[in-house]
Structure prediction request, 246 residues.
Amino acid sequence: MPPTDPVVRPAVIELRQYTLRPGRRDELIELFDQEFIETQEEAGMSVLGQFRDLDDPDRFVWLRGFRDMAARHRALTAFYDGPVWAKHGPQANATMIDSDDVLLLRPLSDENGFAVSPPERPQVSAPAPERFVSATMWSFPPGRHDGIALIRDGLLPVLHKTDPAPLAALTTETAQNTFPRLPIRTGENVAAVFTSYPNESAYRQHLADIQAHPLARDEILPGIDREQTAAPRILRLTPTGRSIIS
Prediction:
C-alpha cells in the first residue's frame, strides 16, 4: 500500500477575524493554543494558522479548513456540540466583542490552495516565529468574474516570478452555509492572496517589485483596479507560536 500523503489540502477555508475586548488577545491565544487546536482537528477540520493583526492589538485572525462543505457541517457540529467547547467556549467568548467577520473561501484552482503538514505543528508555548504574513483581499461586484480571472491568470504568474510565491490564492465559496449557527459574510465576491516573508521589509520590497513589473504595472493592476469595488484590504499579520502557516 502506498504511503499516506501527510499534506492537508483543504477545499473549503474559513478566514475568521475576531474583534476582542481591549487587552485580551494574548489570553485568547493561550486558551486557543492549549484547548482548541488538536480538539478541532480530532473533530475533522484543519487549523491552518493563527495570527496577531499588526494594525489592531485587539484583533485575532485565524484560518481553518475542511475537505468539503458536508465535512464542514459534520466537523463543526461535532466540535461545538462537544465537551471541549462546552467547557472552554464561555471563557473564549468572554474575550470577544465580535466573531462574525468570517469569509468562506476556496482555492482559486487546485494548485493554489493551502498545503500544510499538521505533524509539523509546534508544541504549546513555542515562541512565535519571526515571520510576516500578508493577506491581500480584493472585492468585486457579485457575479462578476473578470477581476478574479485577472488575479488568477495575470497577477499570480507575476507573483510566482518575483518570489516569494504565495502560500495560497483563494476566492469566495458560494455554497450555502452548512452550519448557520456560525454566521458568514454573504454577498461577497473576493479574491485573497496569502504570502509569507522573513519580515515586513521583505514584503515591501516584493510589493515594489510587483508594481515595477511591466506587465503588472501597465495591464494587470490597472485592470484589477477597474473591476474592484474598493481598494484592496491588506492584513498585516504575525503568526502565533503554534501556527503551521508562518
